[in-house]
Here is the input.
Amino acid sequence: MKMKLLQPVTINQWDLQSRVVMAPMTRGFADQETGIIHQDTIHYYAIRAKFGVGLIITEGIAISPEARGTIGIPGLYRPEHIEAWKRVTEQVHAENGRIIAQLWHVGRLSHSSITGGVQPIAPSAVQANGVTHKVHLPYEMPKAMTKDDINKVIQNFKTAARNAHLAGFDGIEIHAAHGYLIDQFQFPWVNFRKDRYGQEKYLFLQEILHAVCEAIEPERVIVRFSEHKDDSPLFYWESPEQEIIEILNVIQSIGISIIHPSAKQYKKTLHRHELTLHALVRKYRKGVQIGVGELTPDLAEELLRNEEIQLAAFGRPLLSNADFVKRVKEGRELKKYNAQIDLPYLH
Ligand SMILES: Cc1cc2nc3c(=O)[nH]c(=O)nc-3n(C[C@H](O)[C@H](O)[C@H](O)COP(=O)(O)O)c2cc1C
Here is the structure.
């Protein structure tokens, strides 16, 4: 029997050659000064499209210099960024792939020597524990965002969305997961604001989604969210049901139809719920959902067949196997992910 995972599918405006999605993965190969991507980035994404990935979600792309949380993060805020990314989108399209840009602001999970001398920002002035990726600088005490800061970030997201369109991307993903800036507004340990952004913890997300959907159609926008926060492994939602209902209300109010809940391990149930993250979302929403988190091709197939998910995202397996889809098709073994081999180069 043919695997559903490997069959073409049409999702909104996208004709996808398979239901395999490349999960967003930061690689850190862009020029630190300019944020322009490395030449090898073109081949890195195009080869995965050539071998059959349906939808590629790029590494997190900074919406401004202050949005960066480590070195080598690419940008989408300068005309040169648009030109550089155009070469990637053209090659991916030439290989029959579709590619969307993940738009990212890390908020307090940064340091001023990475942001270009600017103090990192957050909903409230609460310092995170830990160090930045790669360069291991302690997370700096952030500045509590003023209303002007909030408006500026919303505008930066909107401009980056427009730039993504100009660069030929098929859409965008808003990174509202993993404890980064948007998620920090939903994080009770970090959001002590007395204004509406403190009372309505999804307001910031809602305003960003509203703004980006003025630059790009909502059918081309995906939202990623998660319970887990990179800097706070012991944080769990008080009431997962309530949280999911609130997130879905915001997403639906804007008319966005594709969501990408992020679980570290798909099959693991939530800490305070008997369902997994994706199953709980499914309970309240029937639209397109991307599954992710240590999926295997067989598990993805089962989830696609029982319609818990419509697309299956793979992260590390696609780093170690550029020809992932071909291998699955041919029943060949997948190379095991090894960070020491798979992270230092774009191959
Ligand atoms: C090297 C690496 C970089 C990552 N960078 C990002 C990122 O930029 N944005 C994001 O939303 N998730 C990021 N993730 C998480 C992945 O998108 C994915 O959710 C996670 O790896 C689980 O999928 P997997 O078990 O198939 O690897 C990253 C993961 C890895 C391994």
